[in-house]
Specification:
By secondary structure, the chain is of the alpha+beta class. It has one domain. Helices cover 27% and strands 41% of the residues. It has helices at 31-41, 64-72; strands spanning 7-14, 20-28, 46-54, 57-60.
Length: 73
Amino acid sequence: MLPPVLTKYGFRIRTRVGLVINNLMIHGRDPAEAHRKLRQMYRDCEIIECICHHGGVRTPVVGYEDLKRASAG
């Protein structure tokens, strides 16, 4: 059995006290898992940007609200 493939996701967030954190890297199988891990560490943060770092190529990820709608439907 092959191990799960993890991709790096770079986040730019604003914490609940207003600090902006740039280039916060989190590994995940997909953007939803990376967002879930981020929310465990920074509970009430605002996600400003999410970039997928896969094979040296940076790709913008769809918004968090779009991910929630896609997983609900």
